[in-house]
Amino acid sequence: MSRKVTIIGAGSVGSTITYTMAVNGLASEIVMIDVNTERALGEAMDIRQGTPFCSPIQIYAGTYEDAKDSDVVVITSGMPRKAGQSRIDLAQTNVDVIREIAPEIVKHAPDAIYILVSNPVDVLTYTFCKVSGLPENRIIGSGTILDTARLRSRLAEYLSISQKSIHAYVMGEHGDSSFVPWSTARVGSVEILDDKGGFNFTGRIKAKLNPEEIEQYIRTSGGKIIERKGATFYAIAISVCHIVDCLFGSSNRVMTVSSMLHGEYGIDDVCLSIPFIFGPQGICGNVLPAMTEQELEKLQHSADVLKGVIKQVNI
């Protein structure tokens, strides 16, 4: 079965996504597009030369015209976040990049599902919804899928339980106003915390769980990685490839990706992450867990933060 993916942006994130797709056999054809054509050519060549040990796949550098008949387009273009810089500080620069890219790529791949990865991802997802002319269900921001992965990874360390048995989400903005609705967090089908903040189950618990410490860890992880190695790209690449795998799957999945809200939790006209249902046709619904009044306030605050940024940029 032919599965064509176009990656716009051949920097560390775009190249790592391409590499991860190749190793996992997620696509049969990948086009890499970048304003730096030599970089795209080099990255494509480097990855392609290892593909004899992978599932059959074509990987090459190209132009927007080569994106024709793409099933999925992943947009990673934009200025990267620097140490000490918030995602929101990047807003106008990368909004301008999206406004430039959107008409060119949509002209050649009008039927693709689009995944926005560049930061601030919620603002850029909103921008793409407004300027692309595409149905909103075919526009997905990577949102807090990486934050959620970080949350589950951290909880697994605390609780000595497989990450796959932990069902907890980070919701809201992919940024400083994100939060964990702890009332919805589960191990198996049981709430992680009881009414007093203790555990509702027994096991090989390594340390007392501190929700505030865990949320701080999630929010600061990206910045710490940037300080230590200059950029983040492995974890986001794996996360994006998981989204692509779901889009190419035969059934729908629930994940915290970013999409336009239309009244969910009383929030409208902004893109942020709640548990959305998506699959081969893109976004097709959502799951709205019951949250406490305080958690609902945090979600509304996150929406307000993003709306404040949207008002300040020229879309």
Automatic annotation (TrEMBL):
Binding site for substrate: R81, R87, N119, P120, V121, D122, D147, T148, A149, R150, T232
Functional description taken from the UniProt entry: Catalyzes the conversion of lactate to pyruvate.
UniProtKB keywords: Allosteric enzyme, Cytoplasm, NAD, Oxidoreductase
Name listed for the protein in its UniProt record: L-lactate dehydrogenase
Substrates-to-products reaction catalysed: (S)-lactate + NAD(+) = pyruvate + NADH + H(+)
Residues annotated as binding beta-D-fructose 1,6-bisphosphate: R152, H167
Cell compartment(s), UniProt: Cytoplasm
Domain Lactate/malate dehydrogenase C-terminal positions: 144-313
Broad class of where this protein is predominantly found: cytoplasm
Pathway: Fermentation; pyruvate fermentation to lactate; (S)-lactate from pyruvate: step 1/1
Keyword Membrane on entry: no
Protein family according to the UniProt entry: Belongs to the LDH/MDH superfamily. LDH family.
Summary of activators and inhibitors of this protein: Allosterically activated by fructose 1,6-bisphosphate (FBP).
Residue sites binding NAD(+) per the record: G9, A10, G11, S12, V13, G14, D34, R39, Y64, N94, V117, S118, N119, S142
BP-aspect Gene Ontology terms: glycolytic process; lactate metabolic process
EC number: 1.1.1.27
